[in-house]
Amino acid sequence: MWKNDELFSHVPMPQAEGRPLIVAHPAADLNYLNSWSIMVENEHPFVLFCDEYCPRYPDNLPFYRDDIDNEYFARLANPLTGGRAYRNPGIGFQNMLIHRQKEAVEGMQDLPLLDILYIDWLSPFSEQGSDETFSDIMPKLATNVRDGGIIILDRKHDQNISKWFDFPELLASTTHGVTLEHIGRGEWLMLTLPDNREVTAEIFKVSHSKPQTGVTEFLASLMMERRLTAEQLKKIKYKLPARWPGHEDKDTWMERYLEYLDFPEIGKPYHPCPLDNSWSLNEYSTWVQSLIDNPEQLRPIPRTARTIKLGIDVTLIHGDITEHLDWLMWKDASLILRNRLMDKCLSRCCWLQDKAVNLQPKWESPLIPKLRWSGQESNLHLTTSLLKLAKGPVVATIVYGDASVSQLKKDLLDYKGDVEELIIFHIDEKDFIIGNE
Predict the structure, then answer these.
(1) Is the pLDDT of residue 145 over 90?
(2) What's the domain range around 398?
């Protein structure tokens, strides 16, 4: 980093104890590789948000790959904030890239105060049009950064829009209650990936009195593991998350590549070679153990539940099933639902699809003919009909029939199947009341 013609060996990045840095690069287009590279070089865990009206997802063309033709980014479970999430398992520390289809200004509004804001295009944040200068735009933008955080202003457009780079060494705004201090000009060598370049950027330190809050809750919305309890994490510590189900695995890719070697006319696979997983086992188990050791970082979803012994365990949960999909995945549950709700659940947690049973498949006959789901007219022995369709020992569904415990007792009286636990979610507090037992 340069400051007053003096060379410094490093850029003074903000610190975050016991958690990843929260970084945003709004309106990034393909330039997100530059902000990503800077965070990799910093060697501290980080989460990088890129909000763009037309996101440049790394698992779409041009399919970023490393120098041996492996995919560089492996896709993760979608965060609750929306968008797609990715990571690189070869970096050696916790990292996450999130692309969301959102306007840059809108995206900033639902993030906590940032540790680092990387920006190379100021136009989305200009309220008065193209005539606004650095001093007009940056003070308000700086209110999205925590006290002690930094803004990295890429000089990508310094030749075309020079007024964005005409700034004082110290800028105080009483309107926005924030101070910006220019601490130097940074220079970084970038990753050897397509569409990448060296970066030169101005660096500003942000000062104000607003506290940074809600970070733990925000991180829990990004990562399923942070929404489990310490005891639940112990069960998955050595179980790597599955690859994104929409992507081919390495074995399938290798079969296609070998076919190409035998018959070059069919063409080389256009995807890079898939990674084995989005994590290495050692890194994942170490990270999960760190969460177990620091349960204050966890935000498990609360559940109001009671279990009744009816030959099998029947767990009645008062709540919306869509808010407990992480827990159901942890339980390895077989989801049995009707079409619309099934689609909603799988769109939020696609890994449940392997054991899911859609009672109303779109192009096939219903699995239960003349299905009547609820009320006095519901199908007789609906409980056992559902359990016969199960793809595992744990079944999850929503309230059906007359929502009475007596009906469950009657249906399960002679049940001899393989299901060990039936989980039923219900919204109405009157469902399965004690008087129905």
Answers:
(1) yes
(2) 304-436
